[in-house]
């Protein structure tokens, strides 16, 4: 947010955040569609009518970011979502807390499914890859990509199948 918003503007933005989250979660439960996909489509269904387009984009990004961070916390720590908050859950409106925790759990499941699909698919010589490191499935050689490019054969063993190394969280 840009700062300096009136109390009324802040309340309107907060309502739009809640409305977006609850609408997307409700649709996901009904249809089984991806929560992330439904967040993008909510505006077309009339959600968040009281905020402008710029503010709406901020809210969409905030909901995605918050759900991703919460899901990552759940996955990485195995702790409860209430521990992620850093304050007493009783301070939150029950309906919103229920919706947010359900959405975070669903997001964790969606992200895990994406991870499994990517892991199963792996990477092969000739495909494009963005940034990051790949590990040769045959010899363990690391290939680092500092910009998008085609995956070459392994420089050590000429292997053609690769995977991402396991995620390791660095201490802040």
Describe the structure.
The structure is a single chain. The strands form 2 sheets. This protein has a 4-stranded antiparallel sheet with strand order 1-6-3-4. A two-stranded antiparallel sheet has the order 2-5. It folds into 2 domains: 7-121, no CATH class; 123-163, no CATH class. Strand 3 and strand 4 form a beta hairpin. The chain contains 5 helices and 6 strands. The relative contact order is 0.10. The model has no long low-confidence stretch (mean pLDDT 81). Helix 1 packs across helix 2 and helix 1 packs across helix 5 (94-121). The chain is elongated, with a radius of gyration of 20 Å. With 172 residues, the chain is an alpha+beta fold.
Features:
172 residues, alpha+beta, 2 domains, 4-stranded antiparallel beta sheet, 6 strands, 10% strand
Fold topology:
Blueprint: H1 7-31, H2 35-41, H3 53-77, H4 81-85, H5 94-121, E1 123-124, E2 128-129, E3 132-136, E4 142-145, E5 149-150, E6 161-163
Helix pairs in contact: 1-2, 1-3, 1-5, 3-5
């Amino acid at each position: 947010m840009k700062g300096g918003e009136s109390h009324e503007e802040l309340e309107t933005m907060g309502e739009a955040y809640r409305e977006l989250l609850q609408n997307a979660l409700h649709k996901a439960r009904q249809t089984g569609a991806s929560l992330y996909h439904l967040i993008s489509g909510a505006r077309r269904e009339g959600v968040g009518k009281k905020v402008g387009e710029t503010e709406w984009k901020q809210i969409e990004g905030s909901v995605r970011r918050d759900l991703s961070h919460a899901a990552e916390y759940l996955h990485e720590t195995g702790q409860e979502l209430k521990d992620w908050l850093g304050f007493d859950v009783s301070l939150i409106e029950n309906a919103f807390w229920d919706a947010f925790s359900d959405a975070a759990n669903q997001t964790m499941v969606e992200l895990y499914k994406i991870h499994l699909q990517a892991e199963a698919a792996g990477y092969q010589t000739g495909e494009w890859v963005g940034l990051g490191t790949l590990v040769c499935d045959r010899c363990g050689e690391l290939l680092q990509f500092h910009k998008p490019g085609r995956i070459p054969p392994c420089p050590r063993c000429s292997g053609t199948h690769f995977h991402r190394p396991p995620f390791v969280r660095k201490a802040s």
